[in-house]
Amino acid sequence: MKKVYPFKIPKSLHESLIVQIDRATVLYDKLHQHEEVQITYVVSGNGKLFVADSIHNFGPGDLFVIPSNSPHLFQNNIEEGIEAHMISLFFSGNTVVKAFAHFPELGNIRSFLHELGAGMKLSPCPENLAEQMQEFPSLVPFRKFTRFLSLLDRLTRVSKVPLTGFVYPKEISHNEGQRMRAIFEYVTNNFQKEISLNDIADLAYMTPNAFCRFFKQRTNKTFFQFLIELRIEHACQLLAQGHDVPIGEIAYKSGFRSISNFNRKFKELKGMAPSKYYRSMEVGTF
DNA sequence: GACCCAGCAAGCATCTGATC
DNA sequence: GATCAGATGCTTGCTGGGTC
Predict the structure, then answer these.
(1) Could you tell me which residue ranges the HTH araC/xylS-type domain spans (predicted)?
(2) Nearest nucleotide (CA of A210 to C1')
(3) Which residue places its CA closest to the C1' of nucleotide C14?
């Protein structure tokens, strides 16, 4: 098995803020974590973002704030062949909180970073924030820093959607990381097929019972809860694409073998039936 | 008539607590 | 991390009602 995390953001001695542009059809495809807080704006591309115990669809105009040491992975939708274009900022949350400690004027930003635990999503991101993110790569260091302050200030005032209900308490060990990565990789590549607990436990070199415990301890949800969420997110993507595909076919393509079970799970997670979700996408209420 | 959705019951897979 | 037993809850298949 290949070696992966923990990830280290390359940073020079003269920079506290890293701006990174990613342009690729296949993004960095390993579940990873790093000490730096990550703010990512999606210019183009779409796919799935895995953060800790949660899965989110991403698309153009979305902005994500991923907290320190939160395991995550952006997976671009290769089937559509659209290149993903993302602009990301990385910075040490602890350093910023400490540096701002003596400036009462920055109290709101300090509290914001302190309470960032679950991360956040802005979908779609307000236009002024989107413009700010796209300007970052062309700014000189000083302007980059002042713009960064302004960005954080704006983020404290927008309405946010938390990314996850589970805050990772610590860094994952290397062995645990390899296991979790193998599990995520297998599931994301095979969720449309039937996956048994035995299959996935074998993959982790564990008994089914030990695997259930291992997975729950590290994600705060059962393996099948995770799998169902992944399948429902995929179904949402298919529904959002329109094309008048029957609900039954979408259920099948998302890995469900029974429409009634698909309907039930969909409603549990999205609060509405699949057909209602499809209609709401058509009239643009999302 | 076709499709979608929800309710129900049975069987089975999965989860959990206790213990080693 | 493994084993065991009991509890829990998930899946499946069937049915009937609603909507277009």
Answers:
(1) 181-280
(2) C1
(3) A260
User: Are A162 and A118 contacting, i.e. CB atoms less than 8 angstroms apart?
Assistant: yes
Whole-number CA gyration radius for chain A: 20
CA of A216 to C1' of B20 (A): 22
The pLDDT, as a whole number, for residue A177 is: 59
Q: In the prediction, which pLDDT does A6 show?
A: 42
Domain co-membership, A126 together with A27: yes
Amino acid making up residue A13? L
pTM: 0.65
DSSP A164-221: -S----SPPPHHHHHHHHHHHHHHHHHTTS---HHHHHHHTTS-HHHHHHHHHHHHSS
- Residues 168-187, chain A, CB closer than 7 Å to nucleic strand B: none
Domain-located, residue A168:
no
Nucleotides of B under 7 A from a protein CB: 3-8, 13-17
Q: Exposure of A171 by Cβ count < 10 A (0-12 exposed, 13-18 middle, 19+ buried)?
A: middle
Q: Is the CB of A285 under 7 A from strand B?
A: no
A36 pLDDT exceeds 70? Answer: yes
* Residue A21 φ/ψ, nearest 5 degrees: -110, 125
Q: Can you say how many angstroms the Cα of residue A212 is from the centroid of all Cα atoms in its chain?
A: 23
How many structural domains are present in chain A? 2
User: Do A143 and A198 sit in the same domain of this protein?
Assistant: no
Q: Which domain holds residue A53?
A: 17-162
Q: Select from A55, A105, A51, A46 the least CA-distant residue to A77.
A: A46
Characterize the bridge pairing of strands A84-91 and A37-44.
antiparallel
